[in-house]
Amino acid sequence: MVGELSEGVLVLRVLKGDKVLSETVYDGRVVGGKVAAEGGILDLHPVATRNGAVLAINTSGATSFLGVNASGQITRLAIEP
Description:
By secondary structure, the protein is mainly beta. Helix content is 0%, strand content 67%. The chain has one domain (2-77). Strands 6-7-8-9 form a four-stranded antiparallel β-sheet, with no helix packed on it. It has a three-stranded antiparallel β-sheet with strand order 1-2-3, with no helix packed on it. Strands 4-5 form a two-stranded antiparallel sheet. The N and C termini lie far apart (28 Å).
């Protein structure tokens, strides 16, 4: 998995060798379906799992969690307290 963070926008690519399995773009200025004038992705915390990874993406408005499986599929995770 390769992530590029530039000006609050994250481009996440899941690779297998030279082949791109998936590519997703996240703009941290979008919170709850609305675009904020300022903000963006502040930091990213990847955690490796046995079959992929979990990403915690911290924005100025919230923290989002993404799951990445071994085949490169990316899904938004709902974390319950």
